[in-house]
Amino acid sequence: MAKLFRAAIMGPPGSGKGTISQRIAQSFGLQYLSSGHFLREGIAAKTEAGLLVKTYVERSMLVPDHVMTRLMLPRLEQLSGHSWLLDGFPRTLGQALALNNLYQLDLVISLNIPYETLKERLSDRWIHPASGRVYNMGFNPPRVQGKDDITGEPLIQHDDDKPEALMARLRHYKDVAKPVIDLYKSQGILHSFSGTETDRIWPYINSLLSTKMHTQPSDTCQAQ
Length: 224
Ligand code: G5P
Hints:
Blueprint: E1 6-10, H1 17-28, E2 31-34, H2 35-44, H3 48-58, H4 65-78, E3 84-87, H5 93-102, E4 107-112, H6 115-123, E5 125-128, E6 133-136, H7 163-186, E7 190-194, H8 198-214, H9 217-223
Parallel strand pairs: 1-3, 1-4, 2-3, 4-7
Antiparallel strand pairs: 5-6
P1-(5'-adenosyl)-P5-(5'-guanosyl) pentaphosphate is lined by residues 11, 13-19, 35-36, 39, 56-57, 60-63, 68, 88-89, 91, 95, 121-122, 125, 134-136, 138-140, 160, 169, 197-199.
């Protein structure tokens, strides 16, 4: 049996984590779990967890580590037997260490995108709340303006994409991401990608994933 592949994608708000994760999930058949989408789903459904995290997400503040790990790690247990990709988790060193105690990641993708690019993108972003599908009115507009391509339901904008909230999210990101990036660097699994366009970064990520997923140790054994 092929070895399961476990990956995570990191990057500041608007760096294209969600867009690239959707492409990876489609191209490589990984189960895709977005922490932001998962939290917003709970908030919309008014679940107990949703009520607990609502104030943090609405203020663009990080949800405390003990809450995040309590929500995300059981979801990963449900995915045992599948290869998966995490988008937006882990975000802090505490979360990364908690994940590390249970799973060894094979690959971490880190996106480095200039601030001006992030600002432009987020002011133009629309979401289908039920599925988490992301559109950008310039880059990947929906077929019908304001409607989700699959369901035809209305698209919405996040409150935390406003410029002042965005600045706070970027500052937070830098501070908390550094020790996480250092950890994955020291484990030899970090791959960083810089640029201003997802379409130009994507071929490199696609090629990296193709190589990594086809050279997993147990795949190699199978082939021999
Ligand atoms: P999220 O949802 O994880 P963020 O802030 O990290 O939120 P976000 O905003 O969802 O990340 P992204 O996924 O990196 O951004 O980017 P995206 O959505 O794919 O792309 C952004 C926009 O740009 C889209 O409109 C897309 O179409 C467009 N785009 C992409 N590429 C290009 C391009 O090349 N060109 C152009 N022109 N456009 C492009 O987290 C939300 C909140 O949840 C909590 C926090 O409160 C957080 O603020 N949270 C956590 N708290 C604690 N710990 C965690 N692990 C948490 N995870 C979430």
